Amino acid sequence: MTARHPNRAGTGPMEIQTAQRIDYAARNAAGIAPEGGIHGLRHAFATHLLEAGVDLYRIGRLLSQGTLSTTSRYLHLARSSLTGNTSPLERLDPLT
Known about the structure:
The protein is mostly helical. It has one domain. It has helices at 16-30, 37-51, 56-62, 68-71, 75-82. It starts with 15 loop residues before the first helix and ends in a 14-residue tail after the last helix.
């Protein structure tokens, strides 16, 4: 299996410090405050997927997490918005 974001040598995954440097440089270049860091992006990604109706198992796979209990941390953030959501079927375009 190959890493999604390999290191320069291509022998393994990118080091977290490298990813953090890339994130910081991109935020700095875009004029975005550095609060939250790279973990904030990961957290937002998971929360938005959950709010869009993606199941925890798939989110966990996308984040390369080993257990559903790890992925379920994102439930508390999306719970309030999930209570008012409509069925995914209602988001489909009607057939005409």
